[in-house]
Amino acid sequence: MLPVIALIGRPNVGKSTLFNRLTRSRDALVADFPGLTRDRQYGFGKQGPVPYLIIDTGGVAGGEEGISELMAEQTVTALKEADVAIVMVDGRSGRTAADEYVASLARQHAKQTWLVANKAEGLDPDIVGSEFHALGIGEPVSISAAHGDRVAALMDEVLAPFVATADGDSDKDDAEEKATRIAIIGRPNVGKSTLVNRLLGEERVVVYDQPGTTRDSVAIPFERNGKHYVLIDTAGVRRRSRVHETIEKFSIVKALQAMEKAQVVLAVIDAQEGVTEQDVSLMGLCTERGRALVVVTNKWDGLDSDQRRHVREALERRLPFLDFAERMTISALHGTGVGDLLPAVERAYRAATRDMSTVELNKALADAITAHPPPMVRGRRIRLRYAHQGGRNPPVIVIHGNQTEKLPDAYQRYLINYFRKVFKLKGTPVRMAFKTSDNPFAGRRNKLTPRQEQRRKRLMKHVKR
Question: Biological process GO annotation list (predicted)?
Fold first, then answer.
């Protein structure tokens, strides 16, 4: 088993900065803004003598209310999961009442505790740590997470007890690579985090009746029926004109990056608000990037029959370009229909990664041409000769022929729909690439024989000049 290390502390002491340093990534959103991290963020540590799992948590200070209380519960959960707790304090600000509260949490719930004074670059370690002895949780270790000062030495000491029992993480790495990555995207407050908690069966991410609760993209590995998945909860994406805070801009960037890395996207719509322009834009972007897609209409249980009919008509009218995607209706709060989501994700993923043999593709192409031949262009028939697969996720079908650049868009859509029907590519966009064969005689003139030259001269005498 990998050792688990939790980073805890009051807001803005540098927990997410250290998390990114240890995982050698930018998975955690970092800014000079207290309370930025709200959910537990997991990552595989890559700095130290043995592999380990690192947990980034939100800042706690005591006396939390509302959403801050939920963040504090996330921190306590991380402490109970972890083998080691690293309590971080600000070496430049000195000891505060919030630090004492965090230390008391560590004494109550942590199995093993390390006290780390961050932001100590350029300062005497003895002076920095002098006032933190009063916390009573061990000898302070001075580091700089932003610059990496003494971070390697810290991890050597923290992980020393686990060196002898380390059994490698090749199996976990293989499971991580084989896992299906599922990104959940949508506008703020449509129920994305509630859906994540329902799928996992626990209060894994913070859910609060306030738009913008989720700020960072949180990747959560889990297993269901022997299959591995990575569920990515993302921040809600609003229209650009309504985004003013810098933090929200970075959150949106992280959400779009999560969509780019995912293999299947769950696009969540609020049934009570209907299909908005932002929903259409988000799903259009998802289709443009070639992601497999499942359209999820949440809060379905609160609608009467007339409202449901109206929402279905709006989906048909405003999302005609998503005719390939499965459409599911759920209630994330009560669990209605949530059990059907993972099978739909599996079907979309299988379609997106399907291998199509050249023989099958050529047979399907010939049948499509027989049923509906390509149009004439300037009296010449466009000829499509053969096809082969050019990529997966999304499936790319390459068709070779002549004058393919003049093939009308309507006929290209006909071919896409025909291939989708034959190969059952439900849930994924299909891309076509057309290649026109080069004419080896283009630009070359035939050399005339002497007899042809004489005939040409004889005919030219009758040409009026």
Answer: ribosome biogenesis
Residue 66 in marked binding region: no
The pLDDT of residue 248 is above 60: no
pLDDT in tens, 12-69: 888 888 988 888 877 665 544 455 555 677 778 888 888 888 888 887 877 655 555 6
Task: Tell whether residue 136 is among the known ligand binding residues.
Answer: no
Query: 339 a known binding residue?
Result: no
Tell whether residue 192 is among the known ligand binding residues: yes
- What residue numbers bound the domain in which 111 lies? 4-168
Q: How many helices (H) and strands (E) does the chain have?
A: 14, 17
CATH code: domain of residue 214? 3.40.50.300
User: Which pTM value belongs to this model?
Assistant: 0.63
Tell me if 181 sits within 8 A of 264, measured CB to CB: yes
Which pair of tokens denotes residue 43? 């990552």
3-state SS, residue 398: strand
CATH number at residue 364: 3.30.300.20
Q: Is 191 annotated as a binding residue?
A: yes
- Please check if 57 is assigned to a binding site: yes
Residues 366 and 239 in one domain: no
Q: How many domains does the chain have?
A: 3
308 has binding-site annotation:
no
Q: Is 385 annotated as belonging to a binding site?
A: no
